[in-house]
Design a protein that fits this description.
2 domains, Glutaredoxin, 198 residues, globular, Glutathione S-transferase Yfyf (Class Pi), Chain A, domain 2, alpha+beta, binds glutathione, 7 helices
């Protein structure tokens, strides 16, 4: 049994997309979360340690943090090859890009959103401009973020870039635009949108 704890239009939405890509049966449990405007509330039914989403429970095992959920699910459900297996040359890049998302890219975006300057040499991440220059270069060299094959890492990156498409926070580039269009044209993206509300 595989359960996604989900709040519509939040970071858990991209896991509907991943689950649709995997083609495995799953159930959605809608939960409430605390919103930045002070509304919302912790949900006692949510197993996440901080009451956040996403979190999944698979056969009694709880997994939280987006990058960890990607790695866990693509390892557990390899049928549709959405994540490279151990031994695949793309495995190292895949894990690197998953960790880079959580440890560098999200903190870079949040820093800019919060108008906090990223201290060079002290923070474990860099500013958005430097991170996006790296991402843009990578996407200029290959079709997807970790190689020439679509993976769960692309769900994290393309869904975030789609979200920031009209925001001044994100530097815009042709490579990123084309990448977002290509990833979100996948049938699983549309299927996930249809399940957004549970
Ligand atoms: N690092 C976490 C972030 C999860 C997160 O912050 N989710 C937001 C929704 S977009 C949330 O649940 N916020 C409610 C709260 O912070 O209490 C991940 O990527 O899984």
């Amino acid at each position: 049994m595989l359960t996604l704890y989900h709040r519509p239009r939040s970071r858990s939405s991209r896991f509907l997309w991943l689950l649709e890509e995997l083609g495995e049966p799953y159930e959605i449990k809608l939960v409430t979360i605390r919103a930045s405007d002070g509304s919302g509330a912790l949900d006692p039914n949510n197993p996440h340690p901080h009451g956040k989403v996403p979190v999944i429970v698979h056969d009694g095992v709880t997994v939280f943090e987006s990058a960890a959920i990607c790695a866990y699910l693509t390892d557990a459900f390899p049928k549709n090859a959405i994540g490279p297996k151990i031994g695949d040359a793309m495995r190292g890049p895949y894990l690197s890009w998953l960790a880079y998302y959580a440890g560098v890219l999200e903190p870079a975006f949040v820093s800019k959103f919060m108008k906090v300057e990223v201290p060079r040499g002290t923070a474990g991440w860099v500013n958005v401009e430097e991170a996006m220059e790296f991402v843009d270069k990578a996407l200029g060299q290959r079709s997807f973020i970790a190689g020439d094959k679509f993976s769960a890492a692309d769900i994290l990156y393309s869904s975030s870039f789609a979200l920031f498409a009209s925001s001044p926070i994100m530097p815009k580039t042709k490579n990123v635009d084309a990448y977002v269009k290509c990833c979100t044209a996948r049938p699983a993206f549309a299927k996930a949108q249809a399940r957004e509300n549970g």
